[in-house]
Amino acid sequence: MSKFKIGDVVKLKSGSPSMTISEDYKNGWYKVSWFLDGIPKEYEFHEEVLQLQ
């Protein structure tokens, strides 16, 4: 079972901007999206480094 669902707002446990889960790879990895200075960004993180905002 997935820890997060698409649309959840998360952040890194170590601190980060608010990010939105945009894809669930079903293996513990998620693609997240956010904006930095108005520029859209995306990256993939493992569920163990993310927490709900």
TrEMBL record:
InterPro entries: DUF2158 (IPR019226). It comes from the Bacteria. This is DUF2158 domain containing protein.
